[in-house]
Amino acid sequence: MKKAEATILFFLCLLCGISGNAKEKKDTLFSAEGDRVIVSYSLAVNGGQMTVGFTNVQKKLSEGHLKKFKKLDEVAVVIFDRTGNYRNIKFEGITTSPFMVPAEFTYSPSPDGYFLLQDNPTLQFTVSSDEAKLSVPLYLAHYEGKRHYKVFAQCGTLQLKAKSGKGGTSASSSGAAPDQSSSEVVVTSEELIDEGMSPADEAAIRINSLKQMLERATKVPFSEELTHEASMLRELRFKITDDAVSKQIGEALAAYDDKKQQLEQVADASQKEANEKAAADAQNAQARQDSIAAAQAQQASDDKKNMMWLIGGLGGLFLLFTMGKQVFQAIKSNQMQKKQQQMQQKMQQDMMKKMQELTEKATPKMAGPEGAEEAVQQAKQQAGRAVSKETDAAKQRLREILAGKKGQAAGTEAAPSEPAAPKISITPGRKPSMNDQIPSTYKRLQKSKKSGDGPSSPKN
Prior knowledge:
Layout: H1 2-17, E1 23-30, E2 36-46, E3 49-60, H2 63-68, E4 75-80, E5 90-93, E6 105-106, E7 114-116, E8 122-127, E9 131-143, E10 148-163, H3 199-216, H4 224-239, H5 243-362, H6 369-408, H7 440-451
Parallel strand pairs: 5-10
Antiparallel strand pairs: 1-2, 2-3, 3-8, 4-7, 4-9, 6-8, 9-10
Helix pairs in contact: 1-3, 3-4, 3-5, 4-5, 5-6
């Protein structure tokens, strides 16, 4: 363990102790969509001048972007030193940001306003302080043709740190793209590993990087950086012959597996809890739906019963109305018949009385049977005319009464038939019977004629 710590300290001192020489670095940066860019660059500080030269760039697109942009050589890694007003080219797509030049840096803007890393550009700055920091955002852009690029992703920010004072230089970088949920910067071990480094020293650096990333890991699946470190340590385990270093790699990988299993258990428990909650919510929703359906069915049954009661009540009322109407019509018809009979009887009585009065008035005091016979004939004629007038007047009054009753009756009822004219004993053109039509005065005259005794002549 002490040997490994000493190795790490020696390596760090070696990095910080090199003066005035450019040192090539390599860094891996990721976009939020899963694109990966490996940038190789050199950083040198000499006499207040800092030079950053990009030597190589490698790209690996995510599955979604790879399906959309099938030709990888048409995808460029771009950095900007200003916003807009680019010379002879056009950039569209997501909003881009240029690298910000701190106050302790002096920089002369490029004529184009952008740099394509595959062209291996070089940036030069004048540094006025002993320590300065520079942040350089990297973007992925697809060439659409006709000097037109479409920017579709940002691959993190390259952090460059320059130290002068004793002429030393150092560099660090950020391999994490801006995340929507966290602004934490993930530092990989690629920047600390040089070509020609012994496997033991490389393992020590990767073990330290793995432990730092494991402390920050809060969910599975792990980030690509963490998975990459674990894979590299597994490869180094077969190359290292030192048992102590091999044991440290085994412990780091065991911690990696334990942390992964622990987070998977937490994720499974969370997923199980979410599934149980979803099932309970679905059951509650189904219970509410069943309750609503039952209430609707009960309401429909109650409405049906109420409708049947309403129909039955209306039918009963209609039946009672029909029966009452028929009873009322029967009573009214009987009353009309009785009234007609009474009128007929009264008319007969009035006519008989009138005829008797006319007969008595028309009978004069005669001297003999001849006068009596003539008087009887005159009385018959007068009585016939009077009876005829009275009969016609009675019939007319009866017609008017019946016409008024017919107008007041219902339209569906048949009008009562016109009552027959009352039978009278004396009608025009017929001789009345002596037994029932001739008054008692005529009968006395007949008896006097048969006995030979004429009536006493009237006194003058």
